[in-house]
Structure formats: C-alpha cells, structure tokens
Amino acid sequence: MLTLGISALNFVAISFYKLSLLNAFYDKVETELKLIRENKNQNLPEYFKISNSIINEKNWLLLTPSLNGKFVYINLDHVNKKTKNFALNLFLWETFLIFALTYIFYKLLWHHIREREENRKFLELILLTLSHKLGNFLAIQKLNLEILKQKISSPALDRLNKSYNFIETEFKHTLNIIRNFKARKINVKNIDLKTLIELILQQFREILNNKKIILNLKETKLTANQTDLGMIFYLLIENAVKYAEKEIYISLYNEAKNIVLFIKNDINPNVPKGSGIGLTLAKRLGERYKMKLFYNEKDGYFELKCLFPTRKFHDFFTINSIRNK
User: Residue 72: beta bridge partners?
Assistant: First the structure.
C-alpha cells in the first residue's frame, strides 16, 4: 500500500513537472516565432526547425500555425530529458527516504521489543527472588514452630525475630526495585560507593555480630541509578553475609578504567547451598550497565569480583538522562 501510494504521488508530481516545462517551453517558442517574423535572418535555436515539407523524424513535433506556408517543428528532447532527470532524482531520493525510514522504524521496533523482553525477564527474576526468599523464610519458621511446640525456647524465639526482620528488609528492597522500575533510567545520581557499602553493612549488623569484617574501601564515586546500584551491592554483600562462617573481606578500588568490588568470605558448612538467584539478579541488573561479575569457590572460600566500567557507565546514564528530559 505504501509503495502504491508513493507511486501515485510520483506520477502526479512528474506529470505536473512535465506540464510546467511544456508551458514554459511553448511560451519560449512563441517568443522565437515573433522574432523570426520580424527578422527573417534570425538564427534558429537548435530545438527549432522550419521546413517546406513534412518531417517524419522522431521527437520533432509539428507546431501550428505554420510560418508563411512553411512547416514549423519543435524538438521536445530538452523537455523529455529534464523530465527524466527529475523522475530519476525523485526516485533516488524517495528510495533513500524509504530505506532510512524503514531502518529507523526497524531500530525503534527492535529497541522496543528488546526492552519489553528485558522487562519481562527482569520481572520473572523478581518473582523468582520473592518466591525463593519467602520459601526460605517459611522453612525457617516451620522449624522454629516445631521447636516451640515441644517447649518454649529463647533461641527459637530469637531466630523467629531475626528471620522476620531479615525477610522484612529483603521484601522492602525487592518492592523498592519494582516501585522504581520505570524511573530507573532517569533517576541518576553521583553515588559514593564507600558510603553505600557501609550503609548496607549496617543493615546486617545483627547477623554480623559473630563474624569478622575486614574492609579496604577507597573513596570512589560513580554516576548511576541509585536504586539499581544499591540493589546490586546489597545482593552481593548479602550473599557473603548469608554464607560466611567467621570472616568477610570487602575491598573497593579503581583498576584501569574500572571500579572493582572484591568480596571474599569463608564458607559455613552448616548453611545449605543456595540456588544462586541473588547473584543472578545482581548480574541481570548490571547487564544494562556493562557490569562484569566473576566468582568462584576455592579451598573453603568464596571469591567474587565485580567490575564497573566507569566511562561506559557514565556515558550510558548521561545519554539516557538527556533522552528522557
């Protein structure tokens, strides 16, 4: 339909252009005829021919009225050539325009589809996280309730209280991600990462009472979305807090063009291995910011290294901030 519509418009435009050329050409011919009538020695232009007999040559058109009994012919090659050039230029420009619009439409559609797919996967991951955390919480409470049925136990009550506080904090964090889901592209700030880590550790102070924390944090700032970055750091630190037995080491520093977060903790053999959803969610949140996450388990320790490319991170948020203003 688009092709047919453009073809119809092209036909009208070319016809109108040729008609305009013919009108201008005939006006010029009339002027030449007047000059020839007044001056018989007037030089004839190349598109003009006067003959005593009929000419059957191609592209020569008989013009009426005749001139003193002779046949006057005009050549329309000039008009036809201009019309063809106009049609060719029109075709080339419209072809370029169609391809450009098609490409722009494709890019916009691809971006929209990719964004929808990212959002779908992200929300699926959020639901998995919620169900995973809720499942862990219910399992702990079931065990504590079984103990309470047998006898009143202060440790059980203490575990119930800690579990409740922990799941409440986790739930608030997850809700905060969902609440800020649409605004995370434009809610950009210059974040002090050292302060951010210290604030997150404060949230785990009750769990960390019996664990040694070693911090080596350099003053580092990053322009990013506060909700996303806060959740990434929270999930990575939470993973160490949850599975550490006695000690946790956290380091923050600059390396080349990257900001590096390094976390190392010993592994508590009494804590069941997790499903890895927390690390998957952190990695998923960091994908759009070119974050790289590496981790491995070795000799009873779990090591995690997270790289934030400072330049790309800053450029990404700067561009998206401008686009959304």
Answer: 50, 63
**Radius of gyration of the chain from its Cα atoms, rounded to whole angstroms:** 40
Residue 295: CB atoms within 10 Å: 15
Q: Tokens 């579990």, residue?
A: 163
Structure token pair of residue 55:
């000419």
pLDDT profile of the chain (325 residues), mean per 10: 69 81 75 69 66 71 65 74 82 83 88 81 71 66 66 66 67 64 62 92 82 92 83 89 91 91 91 77 82 90 92 45 37
DSSP string for residues in 76-110: -HHHHHHHHHHHHHHHHHHHHHHHHHHHHHHHHHH
Q: Return the DSSP state at 60.
A: E
What one-character DSSP code corresponds to residue 44? P
Residue pLDDT, tens place only, 245-288: 899 999 999 988 899 999 999 998 887 776 677 888 888 888 87
Tell me how many degrees the CA angle 279-283-289 measures, rounded to the nearest 5.
155
What would the 3-class secondary structure string for 165-228 be?
Answer: HHHHHHHHHHHHHHHCCCHHHCCEEEEEHHHHHHHHHHHCCCHHHHCEEEEEECCCEEEEEHHH
Q: Positive or negative CA dihedral for 169, 238, 310, 222? A: positive
pTM score, whole prediction:
0.55
Instruction: Please list, in sequence order, all residues whose beta carbon lies within 8 angstroms of the beta carbon of residue 139, skipping any fewer than 6 positions away.
Output: none
Which tokens go with 42?
A: 């007037």
